[in-house]
Design a protein that fits this description.
Elements lengths: L1 H13 L21 E16 L3 E4 L4 E4 L2 E14 L6 H14 L3 E7 L11 H4 L10 E7 L6 E8 L4 E9 L13
Length: 184
């Protein structure tokens, strides 16, 4: 029995592991100058709720949620950066907001620290790694309308933790025909 267990574990460890694609930056939204890549995840197709309102605790769902949001499906890219220690969260946040406006994005929602609601600090779905909206931080959601498909961006900045999370959702329909059913 022990030999079978050892063989099973060896086979499990030798099996190829499927990893999600990793990227250091998104072609549309570059990191704040001097930032260091921390981690990323790319999902070819997923659903993402773009926050457009203040966060609060939903007792029924037992989680913090925005008062309003836009459900978007498509390619989801999440990238996290460590921001230079000598830069304030206010400066980083303001730079992203300005760059998005200059890049043709429409700002859907923008808040700073307490304006975001207590739940924004806990909403790991949007911000990851614990308390983000703290110490001159903020959250903003934006949309870029394009003929080939709209692009949504959610930027979360923590001045206290010197971190930035960038989520980009490239809206597109799901590929169909990937599953076959034989009624016979």
């Amino acid at each position: 029995m022990r030999i079978l267990l050892m063989m099973f574990l060896a086979a499990l460890l030798a099996a190829p592991v499927a990893h999600a694609a990793k990227v250091k930056e998104h072609p549309l939204i570059k990191p704040y100058a001097g930032s260091k890549y921390f981690e990323s995840e790319v999902r070819k197709f997923d659903r993402f709720e773009v926050p457009t309102g203040k966060f609060s605790f939903d007792g029924e769902r037992q989680q913090y949620v925005p008062a309003s949001s836009i459900p978007v499906t498509g390619k989801v890219t999440e990238i996290h950066y460590l921001v230079p220690m000598d830069r304030s969260g206010f400066e980083v946040f303001s730079n992203y907001e300005s760059a998005l406006r200059q890049g043709g994005f429409e700002i859907l929602y923008s808040c700073r620290e307490e304006e975001c609601g207590r739940g924004a600090t806990m909403a790991t779905k949007y911000l990851s790694h614990g308390t983000w909206i703290a110490g001159e931080g903020g959250l903003l959601s934006a949309k870029l309308a394009r003929p080939e498909g709209d692009v949504y961006a959610v930027i979360a900045v923590s001045g206290r933790h010197h971190k930035t999370a960038i989520t980009v959702v490239e809206a597109k329909p799901m590929e169909t025909g990937m599953v076959k059913v034989d009624a016979d």
